[in-house]
Amino acid sequence: MDENNRKIVKNSAYLYIRMMVTMVLGFVVTRIVLEKLGASDYGVYNVVGGFVSLFTVLNSILQGGTRRFLALRIGEGDCSKLKDTFSTAFVIHLGIAIIVFILLETIGLYFVNHKLNIDQERLSAANWVFQCSIVSVVMAITQTPFTAAVTAHEHFNIYAFMSIFDIVGRIIMLLLLTFIPGDKLIIYALIQMLIGLIVMVVYRWYCFMHFQECAFSLRIDKSSFREMIQFSGWSTIGHLSAVLNGQGMSILINLFFNTIMNAARGLASTVIFTINQLVSSFVIAAEPQLVKLYGAGEKEKFHRLIFNVSKYTLFLLAVFITPVLLEIDFVLALWLTEVPDYTSSFIRISLIVSFISYSNKFVDQGVVAIGRVKELNLFVAPLYLLTLPLAYFFLKMGFGPITVYWVSAVPLIIAMGLNLYIIHKYYDFPAIRYIVVVFLKNLMLIFLATIIPWLVQQQMQVGWLRFLVVCSLSVMCTLTILYSIGLDNETRAIVRRQMKKINPLKL
After folding, report:
1. 412 Cβ contact partners less than 8 Å away, ≥ 6 residues apart
2. pLDDT grade, residue 507 (50/70/90)?
C-alpha cells in the first residue's frame, strides 16, 4: 500500500469513528428535540432554519474552492503563497458574511413574518429562531477557511473530534431543557447558537496553533483573489440553483401544507443525512488526494481513484438501503414518540435520490479538480431552477408532497451524465465503463438484494422478529450479491486471502 492510500485509509478511519459516534448521538438528539418541542415547533425550526440557509449559497460556492486552493498550495510547498491564499479566503468569507447578514435582516425578516405559514402565536418564537440562525450562519461562514485548512492539511483527527464534541455538547444542553424555564423552542435555538460559538472558538485556536498560514490577516492577494473568484464564478449559478431546489422545496411544502409536513421532511433529512455520513467518509478523505493527483499529472491514478471511491461508497450505501427501505416504519415507531405523516415515504424516496447523488458525487469532485465547472453549470443550473415552478405546478394541481422529491431527482440524473461527459472530454475519463461498472451494477445489486427479504417480510407479522430477520437477510443478500457480481476478480482474490487469514478453511 503506497503512502497516498495509507493516508486515505487512516483519514477514513478517523471519519468513520466520527460517523459512528455522531450517527448514534444524532438520532438521540433528534428524538429529544422532537419530544421536547413537539412536531409543530420542530417544523417551525426546520422551515425557518432552511430559509436562512438559502442565503448561504455564496459561502457554499467558495467552500470547495477554498479547500482546493489550500490543498494545491500545500502540495506546491510555497508557504508565502499559502498564507496569501488563506488571508484572501478569510476576507472573501468575511465579506460574504456581511452581505448575508444584511439580506437576512431585511428581505429575510420580512419573508419570515409575512410569507411563511407559521401560527401567529408561534411567530415570536420563530423570530427568535431566525435571529439565532443568523448568528450561527455568520459564524459558520467566517469559519469556512479554518475548516478548509484542517481538511487540506488532512488533520482529520481534529475534524472528527470537533464533530463529536459538537453533538455531545448539544445532547448535554438539550437534557437541560427540562430544567430551564421558558419557551422550549427559543431555548433550543439559543443552545444551537451557543454550541456553534464554542466550536468556532476551538477550531480557530487549533488553526492558530498548528498552521502558520492561519495567523490573523486582512490582506488580499490580487492573484489569489482572481483565481478563487474565477474558479468559483461559474459555480455561483450552479450552487444557487441547487440550494433553491433543496430549500425552496421545503418552503413550497410549507406554503401548500403546514409545519407538521416540514417536521416530516426534517426527520427524513436527519435519517438520510445520517446514512449519507456512513458512506461519505471515503469521499471526504480522498478529495485532497484527487486534487494532488491532478496537479501531479497522474491521469491513470486519478481515474482509478474516482472508480474505487465511487464504487465502494455505493457498495456501503447499498448495505443500508435495503433494510431501511423495508423496515423504516418499525424503526420510526421505536425511535420517535410521535411520527408525522409522510415521514417514512419521504425517507424511502430520499434513499433513491441519495443513490443517484452518490453515483455522481466523486465524479463531480473530479470535474472540480480539473477546473471544468463552467460547462457543467451552464446546463445544470437552469434545470435546478426549472424544478421549482414545475413542483409548484404539480402541487397547485393537487398532487401530494411526495411529488417534490421526484421532481428534485431529475437534475441529479442529468448532472451525472454531464459530469461524465465533461471529465471524459477534458481528461479522457472512461465514462461508459463507469456507468456500467459503477452505476448500473450497483443499481442491479440493490434490486436483487431486496427480493428475498421482501418476500420473507410479506409472510411475517410486524415486530422485533420480523425486523431482525428482514435486516439480517437484507445485509446477507447484499454482501453475497456484492461479492458475486460487484467485485472484480482481483478484488475477490484479495477478499479470499483476507478471509483465509481469519478462517484457514479453503474458500
Report:
1. 353, 356, 357, 360
2. very low
Whether 422 has a pLDDT exceeding 50, the answer reads: yes
Extents of the domains making up the chain: 14-220, 280-507
Residue 32 Cα distances to 26, 118, 177, 178, 475, angstroms? 10, 22, 10, 10, 29
Q: Taking a C-beta distance cutoff of 8 angstroms, is the pair 83, 212 a contact?
A: yes
- Judged by phi (left if over 0) then psi (alpha if -120 to 50, else beta), residue 505 lies in beta
Q: Give DSSP secondary structure letters for 243-290.
A: HHHHHHHHHHHHHHS-HHHHHHHHHHHHHHHHHHHHH-HHHHHHHHHH
**Model pTM above 0.85:** no
Find the helix packing angle between 3-53 and 123-152, rounded to 10°.
160
Positive/negative CA dihedral, 307, 62, 54, 423: negative
**Rounded average pLDDT over 284-308:** 78
What would the pLDDT profile of 74-88 be if each residue is shown by its tens digit? 766 667 777 777 888
Whose grid coordinates read 422478529? 465
User: Which CA distances in Å does 446 have to 21, 192, 316, 354?
Assistant: 26, 37, 11, 13
